[in-house]
Amino acid sequence: LGPNDYLKTIRLNKAAELLLQDDVRIGDIYIQVGFNSSSYFAKCFKGQFKVTPKEYKENKGILNDNEEDST
Predict the structure, then answer these.
(1) Is the pTM of the predicted complex or chain greater than 0.70?
(2) CA 20 to 30 Å from 46, out of 13, 17, 68, 71?
């Protein structure tokens, strides 16, 4: 894990914490944690947490592990 990936992980974890607060908007969070683009933030967030920031906020951080391969 390189330094850039480490920092991105820390930022995304902080974003996940902020998403659980009712009074914080997703549109403000990506800037607070150091991302310049909402689309890049959403892509990175989904890469780490397997859900979009909106889905994470709506489900109060409960990640759904019911998605299984149908093989």
Answers:
(1) yes
(2) 71
- Of the chain, the end-to-end C-alpha distance in Å amounts to 31
Cα distance between residue 27 and residue 58, in whole Å: 14
How many Å apart are CA 25 and CA 60, to the nearest integer?
14
Specify the DSSP element, H or E, that contains 51: none
- Residue 64 pLDDT level (bands cut at 50, 70, 90): low
Answer for the pair 45, 53: CB distance below 8 angstroms, yes or no.
Answer: yes
Report the alpha-carbon distance of residue 19 to residue 6 in Å, rounded. 20
